Amino acid sequence: MMDKMKHYISYLVFGVLTTVVNLTIYKLLIDVGVHYTISTTAAFVVAVIVAFYTNRRWVFSSQVMGKSVLKEMGLFFAVRVGTYLFDLIGLILMIQLLHMDEFVSKLIVNGGVIVLNYILSKRVVFKSEADAKADTEVKVEVEKNLKTQE
């Protein structure tokens, strides 16, 4: 129970740090007149670098080494590109269609981004051996059930 609590607190702390980095860069750029799509892209790049390091080291305590780190990093960035697209599309909809404030829109969309980032990081990128084993067991069971239904 304490390990789970520590895990969630770590994600919360480093998630807040990453979100602050993201929002600060975004706000600074839009305040100097940079278009919101460029601002959110620049903020995304810096925040993802911060997030990968902190999530890998302190949140999910990844132990992979060597080339496996590159695979982990590739998965992390691929997942984050997906949530970046969610972020960008959300901003376009809120700013262009609903005529909402650029920063307020970013705050709202970030809520969904944070949830998606956690779920995808835990389930796809930094999957523990126990999670991987459970996924394999589920796949085997599903395949077995499909064969018996044929």
Protein architecture, described:
- This protein is an all-alpha fold and 150 residues long.
- It has one domain.
- It is globular.
- The model has no long low-confidence stretch (mean pLDDT 85).
- This is Putative flippase GtrA (Transmembrane translocase of bactoprenol-linked glucose).
- It holds the Pfam family GtrA_DPMS_TM.
- Belongs to the GtrA family.
- One of its GO terms (cellular component) is plasma membrane.
Set down the secondary structure blueprint:
Layout: H1 2-31, H2 36-59, H3 67-97, H4 102-125, H5 129-149
The main pleated sheet reads as: none
What general outline do the C-alpha atoms trace?
globular
Strand content: under 5%
Radius of gyration: 18 Å
> What letter string, H or E per element, gives the SSE order?
HHHHH
Q: State the end-to-end distance.
A: 42 Å
Number of structural units classed as domains: 1
Structural class: mainly alpha
Low-confidence parts lasting 5 or more residues at pLDDT below 50?
none
Helix content estimate: over 70%
Average pLDDT: 85
Count every beta strand, where a strand is a DSSP E run of 2 or more residues: 0
Number of DSSP helices?
Answer: 5
Keywords: Membrane, Transmembrane, Transmembrane helix
InterPro entries: GtrA_CellWall_Glycosyl (IPR051401), GtrA_DPMS_TM (IPR007267)
Main location: membrane
Family: Belongs to the GtrA family.
